[in-house]
Design goal:
Length: about 90
Amino acid sequence: MIQNRITGAAALLASSLLLSACVSSAPEDSPSPFLSELPEGLAETAGPNQDLSRVRIMPADGCYWYEHQNPVETTFLPLRTNDGRPICARAQ
């Protein structure tokens, strides 16, 4: 049982390290994944406390995601309306 916990933790750590290596290895001259201009009405549709300065559309779901930064990490969160629904560019 302890061996399973150690193996699971090691796999999680390894996948985290691999993912961070992929993210940080993008060339400096690659085009920005973020929208240069928000579509009309998106800012009004989005709920409060979401950073609209770095928004992108995720290819996997066609929804808008924003870059959220805090003292511990930087991650992407789905952009949501006031009532918590995700905002998407295409129907899910």
